[in-house]
């Protein structure tokens, strides 16, 4: 904000400036209510307060995190990467309620640093605060300043308008700076009212399934579409886990206010804030894997497209998104390109079934592209998969999205035949302010 506008705020509207945010080019100010209304009418600027969500407790049985790892099939990848030391970056988890002295975190030490963006200082154990947008943007800025490029936002707000939400602007800007961002879809069970920052077009929004019934969407999950018609959440992950959340010792119970917790206690907790970090952790491993493949600095959108490829759904809906995260693949191909309107590009995917001892029976193809959340008209991009005989096997061209997915299952539940398959991407009309579109593609064969 320029000096003249800052002075106008102070002199004409009685504002006290409490904070400024380089990420969103905005301010956090204290103003009399009547002056806020007058400023909004005269200057067409708005400030919106965060309304936090909540998590639900519950005891369903065997809810150790190892059950969740088994559900998404991550152990083999974690074990396979034991010798990979190509990245040492941290994951920024933005949430409330962590006991950093808990044995899960200090044996060995797994926490790089903690920052309390509400009260200041290193303690983040409080689980009862009502943070404002200003505090959340401060946390995102702190993560970026720390060098974190994988960010987990286990929170949601009451802001619906994608053009007016500071947190949405912040995550969009963080993506532009190279951040891979995952956001909880929310726990208010609403449909068609995705709120900030879950409604952002530059994040992946995560829903939740019951850990002990992976086909059942959790009843509290907020679902899409967004106000401009985009699918949300993009995918789901398990929830209802034992966690070290504030070190509570009571299984399935909320922490009593007078209970300071213990360093080895566990608590069963449920919510999209719990399912989201599962996908965030998977993204860290996939980024390491891409670097080992020779992709020196993977773009966030390439990680997004790979994650959406590794989901088990056969259809895409506003309840399940692309389905449950499932970290298993046999052969993959990756592509990134920048195209203008009315251009197309093709990628050849050579499949060798004879070398696939597991027998891949399906192929998943995803193209993802970045667009500003403030846009109301989306770029037109269509996706086709062609057989080695040039027969179209599947296609996707749903309007008003920022990604396309094709799932092809070989007829008769047999393995996909060897040959060179062609992935065809068509770019049609671009949104008015765009001269080109950045496309990030992943295709993988899978055993199921």
UniProtKB/TrEMBL annotation:
Coiled-coil regions, chain positions: none
Top-level taxon of the source organism: Eukaryota
InterPro entries: Peptidase_S8/S53_dom (IPR000209), Peptidase_S8/S53_dom_sf (IPR036852), Peptidase_S8_Asp-AS (IPR023827), Peptidase_S8_Ser-AS (IPR023828), Peptidase_S8_subtilisin-like (IPR050131), Peptidase_S8_subtilisin-rel (IPR015500)
Family: Belongs to the peptidase S8 family.
GO biological processes: proteolysis
The keyword Hydrolase belongs to this UniProt entry's keyword annotation: yes
Natural source organism: Adineta steineri
GO molecular function: serine-type endopeptidase activity
Domain (Peptidase S8/S53): residue spans on this chain: 132-289
PROSITE patterns: SUBTILASE_ASP, SUBTILASE_SER
Descriptive protein name: Peptidase S8/S53 domain-containing protein
Pfam families assigned: Peptidase_S8
Keywords for this protein: Hydrolase, Protease, Serine protease
């Amino acid at each position: 904000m320029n000096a003249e506008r800052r002075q106008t705020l102070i002199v004409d509207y009685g504002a006290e400036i409490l904070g400024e945010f380089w990420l969103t080019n905005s301010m956090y100010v204290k103003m009399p209510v009547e002056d806020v209304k007058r400023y909004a009418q005269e200057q067409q600027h708005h400030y919106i307060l965060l309304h936090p969500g909540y998590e639900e407790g519950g005891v369903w049985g065997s809810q150790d995190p190892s059950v969740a790892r088994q559900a998404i099939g991550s152990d083999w990848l974690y074990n396979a990467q034991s010798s990979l030391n190509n990245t040492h970056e941290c994951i920024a988890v933005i949430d409330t309620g962590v006991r950093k002295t808990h044995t899960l975190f200090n044996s060995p030490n797994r926490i790089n640093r903690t920052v309390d963006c509400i009260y200041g200082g290193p303690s983040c154990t409080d689980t009862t605060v009502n943070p404002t947008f200003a505090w959340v943007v401060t946390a995102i800025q702190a993560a970026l300043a720390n060098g974190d490029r994988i960010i987990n936002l286990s929170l949601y707000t009451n802001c619906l308008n994608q053009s007016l939400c500071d947190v949405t602007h912040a995550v969009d800007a963080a993506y532009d700076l190279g951040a891979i961002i995952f956001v909880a879809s929310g726990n208010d069970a609403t449909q068609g009212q995705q709120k900030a920052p879950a409604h952002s077009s530059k994040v992946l929004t995560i829903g939740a399934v019951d850990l002990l019934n992976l086909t059942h969407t959790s009843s509290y999950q907020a679902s899409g579409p967004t106000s401009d018609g985009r699918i949300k959440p993009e995918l789901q992950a398990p929830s209802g886990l034992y966690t070290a959340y504030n070190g509570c010792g009571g299984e399935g119970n909320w922490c009593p206010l007078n209970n300071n917790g213990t360093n080895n206690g566990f608590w069963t907790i449920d919510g999209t804030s719990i399912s989201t970090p599962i996908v965030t952790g998977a993204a860290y491993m996939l980024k390491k894997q891409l670097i080992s493949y020779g992709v020196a600095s993977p773009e966030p959108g390439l990680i997004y497209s790979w994650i959406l490829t590794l989901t088990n759904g056969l259809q895409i809906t506003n309840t399940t998104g692309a389905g449950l995260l499932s970290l298993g693949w046999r052969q993959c191909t990756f592509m990134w390109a920048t195209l203008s309107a009315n251009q197309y590009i093709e990628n050849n995917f050579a499949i060798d079934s004879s070398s696939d001892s597991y027998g891949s029976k399906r192929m998943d193809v995803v193209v993802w592209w970045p667009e500003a959340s403030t846009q109301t008209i989306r770029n037109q991009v269509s996706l086709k998969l062609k057989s080695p005989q040039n027969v179209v096997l599947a296609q996707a061209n749903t309007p008003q999205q920022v990604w396309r997915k094709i799932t092809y299952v070989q007829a008769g539940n047999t393995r996909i035949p060897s040959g060179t398959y062609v992935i065809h991407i068509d770019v049609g009309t671009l949104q008015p302010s765009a001269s080109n579109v950045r496309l990030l593609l992943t295709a993988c064969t899978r055993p199921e």
